Amino acid sequence: MNARSSWIEEFWRIVLLAALAVALGLIFEQVTLFLLLALLAYSLRSLFNLQRLSTWLGEPRVETIPIHFGLWGDIYSRISRVSRRQAQREKRLSTLLNEYTASTSALPDAAVALDTEGRIRWFNDAASRLLGLQAAKDVGQPLLNLLRAPEMAVFFNGSDRSTPLQTAAPGLSGHQLEIRIAPYGEGQQLLLAQDITERLQHERMRKDFVANVSHELRTPLTVISGFIENLQHDEAIQAEARLARPLEVMGQQAERMQQIIEDLLVLARLETASTASAREQVDVEDLVSLVAAECSALRYDVPSIECDLRCSKKILGDSKQLRSALTNLVVNAVNHTPAEGEVMMSWWPRGNEAILEVADNGEGIAPEHVPRLTERFYRVDAGRSRERGGTGLGLAIVKHILNRHDARLEIESRLGEGSRFRCIFPADRLHD
Ligand code: ADP
Asked: What does the alpha-carbon distance between residue 328 and residue 334 come to, in Å, rounded to a whole number?
């Protein structure tokens, strides 16, 4: 029965009751009294039904519905339907919550949910293992009271969280963690910590391997180059014209291998330290003039090298490394620009940063290559790079040197128009 028809039924019930009261009232000549009695009876019945409804609402189950017909039956069946739906929704939610908790517990990475004040709301099993948190007593505690490493407070309260923090695992000695913080909801945060011990070990093995191989190859190559040179100057050999060309090629290739090994060793050295140890005040004007003079003497057909210095600040860093980075950029510019072109070195302030730029109007680079230029051995045209004596490691070295100076490299280039390589130094690496 729908709500409308049960209301109509109830209406007719009231009309019937009133008619009965009027009829009896007419018989006994007491119409008002019988109408009042009918009203009282109706009110008492409604009160009784309300009381039964209130008791039933304590545990609203279909089986215990006391009335199945009329308006009250309709009310009972509607309430029981709503409560059944509610119960199903709750069950679904709790199953979902259980599955979610079970899956996050199974995660190998630690996850800690924090409220707006940085207090722990919840964490998974890996957080107990890696961060040493204890379920019973640590929920509700400020996270920084429990993870007391100073770098943790700096990272947590700092504004720049784009770079994850690497730190020792408080709960697992000898292990290293990579920590990230992701904001969610309204001011809440999720801390994620990954055990990177194995990854760091592999990285160290790779670096050691490259450094050792390069080191081991250096001595035999020096010996080979020495012998080739000796042979080239040997009069008996010089008399044999057919040997001149092979010896020349052997000499060039040995020199190239030596250059690759030197570059690999430079990279290995740069990789093993995290930030530049030296903090000399490097005068950019001196640096630029030195590199310009060196590079102008590279070949006879070098394009013109100009300088534009609009910043008086010095760089706090390692002068040898900065010179090597700038030389790499200028040599590249010279190698990729025709003799009638121009290479411009500029130094200028931008906000509280300063930019050291090497720009050329040479051949330029197609956009698809630009993001990969700082990868080791990545070359746009490997054959031409080798011809020019390139190792494919120059820009990788530049990037590492800049990293060690907290600086970054921006590359802008247009094919056929030229390229701009910008080294951007932050305020705390500059000195007035
Ligand atoms: P390479 O030893 O080959 O110069 P780099 O790492 O220094 O290695 O440079 C990688 C590649 O980037 C080069 O092979 C070249 O194709 C491209 N490149 C670098 N600088 C320039 C430039 N100024 N103009 C055009 N191409 C460039």
From this structure: 10
